[in-house]
Amino acid sequence: MRSESLNLLASFASLMLIPIAIAIAALAISSLRSQKKWPSLKDTLQASGIAAGITLAITLAICVGFKLSGFFDAQFYRPSNKDYGQVAELELTPAPVTFSSDDGTKLSGWWLAAENPIGTVLHFHGSDRNITYTVKNASWMTDFGYNVFVFDYRGYGTSEGTPDRDGLLADSLAAIDYVKSRADGTPNALVLYGQSMGGQLAIVAAAQRRDSGIQVVVSEATYSRHSMHIADKLGQLGPLWLVKWGAWLLTSDQHCAEGAIAQVQCPVLLIHSEADAGVLPYHARRLKAAGGDNVDLWQLEDYRHLKIFGELDNRQTLANRIAELIP
């Protein structure tokens, strides 16, 4: 989530304390005028309770308004059209691709071909930036014999449109269909590899494309439910630990990974680091519990968010595990 949105909510929560202070002060002044003494504890508690009730009602009303408007859902997306230069830095030569989502939105992607490919990895990036940056997170799979297709959701990079929950899922399904339509798309295996928000999309898309020949889903550092991810972020703000329990009022859990993972028929490999503060590691355990016997969890230590595959040994281990999971 965007930090400015959390700061907005923190400021809002702080403002909600004002009616309580005003009610107590008003009661005290009134009592002093009429009785020339401070109000009793009972009167103070009654005034505080009334003010707290009013504050709660206002808070709930505003939270419901945020949810109905989709305000907090939109904070999951941080698109950029900046060129981050990773293609030049990594000396890659991807083939540019344009394809359409189901509503006609034009999407952009890159195809990186491997020599004598054994399969294709379709990469779903996270909520930040675009493929000119995130291509580095998947391009290394060509070294292990996989074609790699990276693409930008609507509103990201040079893709048309504006990101939203339904639209990004439609784009993910369209990317699967595009890869399947290519003669060189799935020479042996189709692997979906999603990171952070992209892991959620890969899981939900695989659940809806069970007949698409997907052999393996890899989901790295993915949140189980949107509302729980918001709750985690609110809890990190300290004094708002009470407010975070109302996170379910701020966003929808539509298309959540936890609700879809049991419907995925192929093997699913969940990857998470215990040191990940971007998406807390308990989400992976929830996903493992929600899935079937086809879901495995690879837990690591001491890696920050999406930093696991900066190490060559971990890349080799992932390639080996994918090979073991392909039927």
Tell me what you see in this structure.
This protein is an alpha/beta fold and 327 residues long. Helices cover 42% and strands 17% of the residues. It folds into two domains: 3-69, no CATH class; 80-225 and 254-325, Rossmann fold. It has helices at 3-15, 18-35, 41-69, 71-74, 86-89, 131-134, 165-181, 197-208, 226-235, 257-260, 282-290, 312-325, and strands spanning 78-79, 95-100, 106-112, 119-124, 128-129, 146-151, 190-195, 214-220, 268-273, 295-300. Strands 2-3-6-4-7-8-9-10 form an eight-stranded mixed beta sheet. A two-stranded parallel sheet has the order 1-5. The longest helix is centred in the N-terminal third of the chain and has 29 residues, at 41-69. The protein is globular and about 85 Å long. 38% of the residues are buried.
List the helices and strands and how they pair.
Elements (H helix, E strand, L loop, with lengths): L2 H13 L2 H18 L5 H29 L1 H4 L3 E2 L6 H4 L5 E6 L5 E7 L6 E6 L3 E2 L1 H4 L11 E6 L13 H17 L8 E6 L1 H12 L5 E7 L5 H10 L21 H4 L7 E6 L8 H9 L4 E6 L11 H14 L2
Parallel strand pairs: 1-5, 4-6, 4-7, 7-8, 8-9, 9-10
Antiparallel strand pairs: 2-3, 3-6
Helix pairs in contact: 2-3, 7-8
Shape: globular
The number of helices is: 12
Under CATH, the homologous superfamily of the largest domain reads Alpha/Beta hydrolase fold, catalytic domain
CATH class of the largest domain: Alpha Beta
> How many domain modules?
2
Classify the secondary structure makeup into a structural class.
alpha/beta
- Strand order within the widest sheet? 2-3-6-4-7-8-9-10
Total beta strand runs: 10
Percent of residues in helical segments?
40-55%
CATH topology of the largest domain: Rossmann fold
Largest sheet: 8 strands, mixed
Beta content:
15-25%
CATH architecture label name of the largest domain: 3-Layer(aba) Sandwich
